[in-house]
């Protein structure tokens, strides 16, 4: 904007609306408007016009391309072409982007090159209303209050406030049926004494001899895989998911001598221990096991538990050890639970200690 | 260029515009006005002036990406099924065919692989959401750093903060809808947050999920919240935000002719309508490009939700990263009082700190105006350096945010940089407290130094890079006065006033009411403003100029601004001018 010729001494005593005593430098006033090349050269204006029209034509072209791509490119079996993006997605996206961007660029070019670029000034007004308006409003409010008699009849006012306030109660109560009350549901899982531990995908039971030292098995209660043979009740849908979310366990085998402590006496079988898979922090399933340290890490917030030492927390935001599932072996040689967990699994909650 | 473009013009048109009657547009306008009476409102607003600055465009990105969200979102609702009913997937994606999953997940896969343009729209919707929250946040920083949240715009600032909160919640409910493994993990964590709420936690959890997690109610309920409840409130608040913007008129940077009493810029019609309207297409187009070329949330790779599974490196969308980071940093503290469990390890990072941060953000302009006692309206923006304490507070908050955010990616950082996740976490636990303090101190001193530099420039001119050697061999750098408009811009700011406690007793010698509050105010005012550098007075400027003129006489040589090429033969300022010859 300013060429070297424009530069004036930092202090000038001409122009400006603010008294010089207050402001060290008076307001020099708005920049003078200068012509753009397109304002004074018809050739350049025509060229800008052609540029803008060309953008709009390109946009039309892209819109047509979009329709062509929509009908010619297969979706479904071509999702892995063009860098796993899908030919249809890329073609549709690029043509749509072109159709939109060319309009945008064209319109802005129009505004910059051909529309008036004369800056105009508009006066501001205080945000508040004029004093007269305020007075009139207050007077109206006053009149309204007086006409209603709300000030003179406190009985009406107070009972009305009470009535309207109490409307909050129905509004709240009507939400009651959003869900059942918790009861002691969080404290129980589907595990029962004698229930076999089964692999979580196949549902096959586990024998201690199936496991090498260092192995980890993601397991589930057998009741989630009901068959005629095991005689468990049919379970599906919501109930299945709920019990799955609570009953998931991990079974690990370590050298019996490596076990420093367990949460109960005789809860392990030949170095095999089993813990709830659900993190006691906010309930992510835990899955990263380091066999040399017997540490298991939650991938969500990195709480780390030492499975050799009652799954106590060695690092991270969890506050409590993973609950341990007491193990035994049944007469057929399969791993079974001695009982349900002896404390609630998963994230802590207010009445947790009350129920266990 | 042979055309002289330097002459003064007052209009681009050759002739004055005269209102015309008739024409089809005229008759439509007439028809509409006779029924709606819009002319009275429109006459004021059609040529409403908006000032021009690149930073005023940030909020516009947020606005337009919201429009893109509405458009792409409606498209997605046409195929998405908000149900947790279990079905077998039989669509086009080979790897998951035959797998049991919720209808929500299956319909998301259907949109991605069997609806033409579906994956594009899904990715555009997700990208637009990240852009929406990001642009709101950058816009918020722009407003705070330039003091645009001062009177009369405090309420609009509060609305803006609520928009940021709602946008974040809208994002969370949105990315939870596909019911894939990653989002399901997020919902399970959210269930953990609810359960950590004292007294009513388990009830809230059971009511939200319609029973025990996961239940079958959460997806349809989140869907209603995502497509109806929050967008409705967002829309209303955005409307209020824009109406207040129009009513207050946009803030502007100080400059020649730009004062607290006016607003200088281009009129809405046609220039801003074109620029803003064109910008909508650009934002839309860029999001379309992102949707076409950048894969986001590939749910088909995560697979359907299974409460017993999780992937390593689980990360929420970026705007959820900082509370997630706080969650990772918080040590595992839990207390049991009278048999009731209080999970500080979840409550502090999720239920206490983020809402507290939002409240801090919302009250910033009110605290500032209370300390300064400044009840005037402000329409001129402040440069960040001219409010050192405010700038430093914002940078401290940003540092806190950034460190918490980094903590949210501590596993990724550990893997990428081959570091110990434990050490990163220990470091960040300390840094989250110390970092903001250091950032505050550095920023504040930095701002004050910049203020000092402004004054140097005003009083002694700018550094030309021209080194003068005096007759007795001393070297000095030549300073030249700066451009008048620039000098005005630098001085166009208020002098800070420090509030001082007049007397702590009233007329009767009794301790005056509110003295303690006022003493705090005085103390804050002093610590906020006492170190600031004020702009020079007229006397200081005059004196500096006398001094400069004297200096000029001593080392006469340059009679025009130096461009740094005076001595290398490339001097272009004045043709044929040879400094070397003097």
UniProtKB/TrEMBL annotation, chain B:
Protein name: Cytochrome bc1 complex cytochrome b subunit
Cofactor: heme
Location of this chain's protein in the cell: Cell membrane
SUPFAM superfamilies: Transmembrane di-heme cytochromes
Transmembrane segments: 54-80, 124-145, 157-177, 223-247, 278-300, 346-367, 387-406, 426-443
EC number(s) on file: 7.1.1.8
Domain annotation Cytochrome b/b6 N-terminal region profile: ranges: 28-254
Extent of Basic and acidic residues compositional bias: 560-582
The UniProt record lists the keyword Oxidoreductase: yes
GO cellular component, one term: plasma membrane
Catalytic activity, as annotated: a quinol + 2 Fe(III)-[cytochrome c](out) = a quinone + 2 Fe(II)-[cytochrome c](out) + 2 H(+)(out)
């Amino acid at each position: 904007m300013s060429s070297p010729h424009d530069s004036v001494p930092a202090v000038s005593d001409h122009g400006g609306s603010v008294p010089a005593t207050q402001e060290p430098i008076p307001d020099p006033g708005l920049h003078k408007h200068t012509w753009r090349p397109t304002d004074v050269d018809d050739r350049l204006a025509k060229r800008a016009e052609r540029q803008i029209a060309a953008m709009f034509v390109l946009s039309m072209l892209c819109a047509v391309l979009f329709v062509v791509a929509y009908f010619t490119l297969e979706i479904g079996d071509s999702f892995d072409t063009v860098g796993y993006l899908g030919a249809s997605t890329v073609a549709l996206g690029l043509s749509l982007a072109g159709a939109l961007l060319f309009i945008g660029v064209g319109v802005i070019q129009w505004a910059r090159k051909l529309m008036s670029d004369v800056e105009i000034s508009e006066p501001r007004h205080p945000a508040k209303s004029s004093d007269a308006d305020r007075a009139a409003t207050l007077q109206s409010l006053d009149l309204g209050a007086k006409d209603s008699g709300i000030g003179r009849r406190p009985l009406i006012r107070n009972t009305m406030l009470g009535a309207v306030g109490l409307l909050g109660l129905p509004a709240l109560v009507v939400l009651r049926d959003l869900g059942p009350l918790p009861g002691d549901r969080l404290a129980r899982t589907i595990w029962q004494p004698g229930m076999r531990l089964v692999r979580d995908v196949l549902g096959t039971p586990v024998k201690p001899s199936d496991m090498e030292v260092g192995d980890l098995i993601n397991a589930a209660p057998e009741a989630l895989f009901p068959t005629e043979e095991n005689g468990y009740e049919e379970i599906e849908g919501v109930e299945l998911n709920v019990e799955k979310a609570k009953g998931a366990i991990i079974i690990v085998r370590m050298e019996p001598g490596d076990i420093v402590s367990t949460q109960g006496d005789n809860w392990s079988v030949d170095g095999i221990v089993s813990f709830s898979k659900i993190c006691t922090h906010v309930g992510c399933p835990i899955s990263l096991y380091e066999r040399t340290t017997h540490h298991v890490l939650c991938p969500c917030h990195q709480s780390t538990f030492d499975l050799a030492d009652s799954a106590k927390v060695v690092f991270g935001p969890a506050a409590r050890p993973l609950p341990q599932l007491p193990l035994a072996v049944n007469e057929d040689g399969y791993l079974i639970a001695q009982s349900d967990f002896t404390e609630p699994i998963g994230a802590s909650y207010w009445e947790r200690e009350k129920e266990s | 260029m042979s055309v002289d473009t330097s002459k003064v013009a007052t209009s681009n048109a050759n002739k004055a515009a005269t209102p015309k009657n008739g024409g089809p547009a005229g008759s439509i306008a007439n028809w509409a006005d006779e029924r709606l009476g819009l002319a009275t409102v429109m006459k004021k607003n059609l040529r409403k002036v908006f000032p021009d600055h690149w930073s005023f465009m940030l909020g516009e990105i947020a606005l337009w990406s919201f429009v893109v969200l509405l458009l792409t979102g409606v498209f997605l609702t046409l195929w998405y099924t908000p149900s947790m009913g279990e079905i077998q997937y039989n669509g086009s994606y080979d790897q998951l065919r035959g797998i049991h999953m919720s209808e929500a997940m299956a319909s998301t896969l259907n949109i991605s692989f069997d609806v033409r343009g579906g994956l594009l729209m899904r990715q555009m919707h997700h990208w637009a959401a990240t852009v929406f929250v990001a642009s709101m946040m950058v816009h918020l920083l722009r407003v705070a750093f330039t003091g645009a949240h001062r009177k009369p715009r405090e309420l609009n600032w509060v609305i803006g903060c609520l928009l940021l909160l709602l946008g974040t919640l809208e994002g969370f409910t949105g990315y939870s809808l596909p019911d894939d493994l990653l989002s399901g993990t997020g919902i399970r964590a959210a269930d953990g947050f609810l359960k950590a709420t004292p007294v009513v936690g388990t009830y809230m959890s059971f009511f939200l999920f319609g029973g025990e997690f996961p239940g079958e109610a959460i997806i349809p309920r989140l869907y209603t919240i995502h497509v109806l409840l929050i967008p409705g409130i967002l829309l209303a608040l955005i409307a209020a935000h824009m109406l207040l913007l129009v009513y207050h008129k946009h803030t502007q940077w100080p400059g020649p002719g730009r004062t607290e009493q006016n607003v200088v810029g281009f009129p809405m019609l046609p220039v801003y309508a074109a620029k803003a309207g064109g910008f909508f297409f650009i934002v839309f187009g860029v999001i379309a490009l992102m949707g076409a070329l950048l894969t986001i949330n590939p749910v088909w790779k995560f697979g359907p939700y299974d409460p017993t599974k999780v992937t390593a490196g689980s990360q929420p969308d970026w705007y959820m990263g900082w509370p997630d980071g706080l969650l990772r940093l918080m040590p595992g503290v839990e207390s049991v009082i009278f048999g009731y469990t209080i999970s500080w390890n979840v409550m502090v990072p999720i239920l206490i700190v983020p809402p507290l941060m939002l409240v801090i953000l919302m009250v910033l302009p009110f605290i500032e105006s209370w300390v300064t006692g400044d009840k005037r309206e402000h329409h001129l923006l402040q440069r960040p350096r001219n409010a050192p304490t405010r700038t430093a507070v914002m940078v401290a908050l940003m540092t806190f945010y950034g460190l918490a955010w980094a903590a949210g990616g501590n596993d990724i950082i550990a893997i990428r940089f081959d570091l110990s996740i434990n050490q990163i976490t220990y470091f960040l636990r300390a840094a989250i407290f110390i970092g903001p303090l250091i950032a505050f101190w550095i920023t504040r001193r930095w701002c004050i130094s910049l203020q000092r530099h402004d004054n140097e420039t005003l009083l002694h001119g700018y550094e030309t890079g021209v080194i003068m050697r005096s007759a007795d061999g001393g070297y000095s750098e030549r300073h030249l006065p700066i451009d008048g408009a620039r000098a005005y811009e630098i001085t166009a700011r208020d002098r800070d006033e420090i509030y001082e406690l007049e007397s702590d007793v009233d007329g009767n010698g009794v301790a005056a009411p509110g003295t303690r509050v006022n003493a705090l105010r005085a103390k804050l005012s002093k610590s906020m403003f006492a170190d600031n550098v004020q702009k020079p007075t007229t006397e200081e400027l005059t004196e500096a100029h006398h001094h400069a003129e004297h200096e000029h006489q001593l080392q006469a040589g340059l009679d025009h601004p130096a461009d740094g090429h005076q001595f290398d033969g490339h001097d272009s300022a004045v043709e044929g001018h040879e400094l070397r010859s003097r």
